[in-house]
Amino acid sequence: MSSLLQVKVIPVNGVPCLTSCKKEERVQNDIILFENLLNFRGENANCNDFSQKLASGAAIFVNDSFSLSHKIRASTVGITRFCYASLAGFHFEEELMQLLKINDTTRRPYIAIVITGPYFIFSS
Length: 124
Prior knowledge:
- This is Phosphoglycerate kinase.
- It catalyses: (2R)-3-phosphoglycerate + ATP = (2R)-3-phospho-glyceroyl phosphate + ADP.
- By secondary structure, the protein is α/β, with parallel strands linked by helices.
- The protein has a domain at about 35-105.
- It has 4 helices and 6 strands.
- The protein has a two-stranded parallel ribbon. Strands 3-4 form a two-stranded parallel sheet. It has a two-stranded antiparallel ribbon with strand order 5-6.
- A hairpin with a 5-residue loop joins β5 and β6.
- The longest helix is centred in the last third of the chain and has 15 residues, at about 90-105.
């Protein structure tokens, strides 16, 4: 991913200040990529302190998970309070466009099969 974006992408297992990823090691243009945060109590509770740790040193927050964006969690809602800007990522936009395309179709009846998790499957 680093070569594609032409910036350093730092994968992190955990939360800043609690991991080996030290703030002084990061450069202004680095991207921090978090693993699954659902195992952290502060994530599910949308904890203000947890959100602030996630956002530490970040200016821009990019949400690339459309399927989780409706959930009020530290990594989807809380973090936005501590970042200068919040944006939708490419995958988020792609999934939203797919929903809009389905909405515009004139074929009836609609059948939607919603699977809990990161994917939605639609059929008509």
